Amino acid sequence: MDPIRIDDPRDPRVAAYLDIRERDLAGRQGRFVAEGKVVLDLLLSSRRFTAESILILENRLGGLEEVLRKAQADLPVYVVAGGVMDAIAGFHMHRGILAIGRKETPHPAGSLLDALPAQALIVVPVGIANHDNMGSIFRNAAAFGADAVLMDGTCCDPLYRKAIRVSVGAALKIPFASFTDTAGFTAELDRRGYDQFALSPRGRIDIRDARRGERLALYLGTEGEGLPESLLARLQTVRITMSKGFDSLNVAAASAIALHHFSR
Amino acid sequence: MDPIRIDDPRDPRVAAYLDIRERDLAGRQGRFVAEGKVVLDLLLSSRRFTAESILILENRLGGLEEVLRKAQADLPVYVVAGGVMDAIAGFHMHRGILAIGRKETPHPAGSLLDALPAQALIVVPVGIANHDNMGSIFRNAAAFGADAVLMDGTCCDPLYRKAIRVSVGAALKIPFASFTDTAGFTAELDRRGYDQFALSPRGRIDIRDARRGERLALYLGTEGEGLPESLLARLQTVRITMSKGFDSLNVAAASAIALHHFSR
């Protein structure tokens, strides 16, 4: 494709990139923003997501030839000078590589579970509202070969710009779905033969002694509140034993330890 | 102590809190900023650091009585309304609890090593310039009972405001020191009988198979570059095995896995 030069920040062809930060908060009607070379590469390689356009700082174009070769021939690639980029995005975009992707139609949790292999590891975030933590959980899930992320309806969107960036693109790689009926979801996993472990500082089993079967669901709660009592009562609870004077671990760090332990 | 009401953001008694973000970047002549209730509690309980003053939003004072009881009787506690707090700090301070602490005289690495017990676990960050990562490494070090952090001279200051906050105060709890002569430092640890493990994606031993002796030093490098080749050649290298398609782990997550593995 031939890059298209844009000089006016208000050019309608780059309207989707205007005021990126504010637009994140307001939602973007089925679209998301991918940032940086690694994430762009994953977006262009994805079979689940489609890129609608790319916006690149002129001095970054040279390093992107190999990545851009993966783009469809008719995908618009807009090239801008630094000042124009900042004026479009509404703040200083030092990375200089942006793309708009289109979200897929949300999967029902059940159909995502149908598609998983006989041996499966799924991550189940509950109430994770912080985009950093969500992104890190996806990154760790990808690093340790989790097959899917199934989250409850109170979690934040993993396709929020910052979550994708922190995930280093894992949010575009690992299939995910949401569920609203938590009791129904745990019952469904029982029927499908999943071990269901809830990570909790007050868990009954030390994770060093926890052994998984063929199918495992790992539930992660928020740092402050943790998982709801009703879930803890229902599931097997697993703890990461910590130092007595300082038993505080970020949920992303806890997910790294647990996923590493249960990965095969 | 009796709280002192401040109504003028330019009152000289709160000058140390002015434009907090910019001042972080410029350094603060032997002082640091502690933020939030948990960190303030650790500062007031510390034998290594002294608080110089406290600045609190008026509506937070009620919840702090127990923490403030740990303060010396002559420690000034300034109380302000929300607008005054924001005008002093230079941005919206929703936490509403700040304190200025005084740094201790830096320890030479050797005297810190002298003070460690016969069985010791130390963390050795090399080139960690990101305050989030530094804070997370301290938090994980505290959670898994590390005795000290010894960092090379290219690391960032763990007493930077954001690093302390991300560490949830662990930066005030775990003793730390810097070294400049890396070769001399590794030789020193050899003499003191430390196992020296370098965490690296290309490490020779899978961490699951790594066994520590009485004294262990765990080296952590940056995410992009990793540890310098000279160090990797010199030390035992340990890897965290990851998924083939996505072998990318944040250094904080890697430190959590390794410290959990080696903690006792």
TrEMBL record, chains A, B:
SUPFAM superfamilies: alpha/beta knot, L30e-like. One of its GO terms (biological process) is RNA processing. Gene3D superfamilies: 3.30.1330.30, 3.40.1280.10. It comes from Mesorhizobium australicum (strain HAMBI 3006 / LMG 24608 / WSM2073). Residues 121-260 form the tRNA/rRNA methyltransferase SpoU type domain. GO terms for molecular function: RNA binding; RNA methyltransferase activity. This is rRNA methylase. The lineage of its organism: Bacteria, Pseudomonadati, Pseudomonadota, Alphaproteobacteria, Hyphomicrobiales. CDD domains: SpoU-like_rRNA-MTase (cd18095). The keyword Transferase applies. InterPro entries: Alpha/beta_knot_MTases, Ribosomal_eL30-like_sf, rRNA_Methyltransferase, SpoU_MeTrfase, tRNA_m1G_MTases_N. Coiled coil: none annotated. Keywords: Methyltransferase, Transferase.
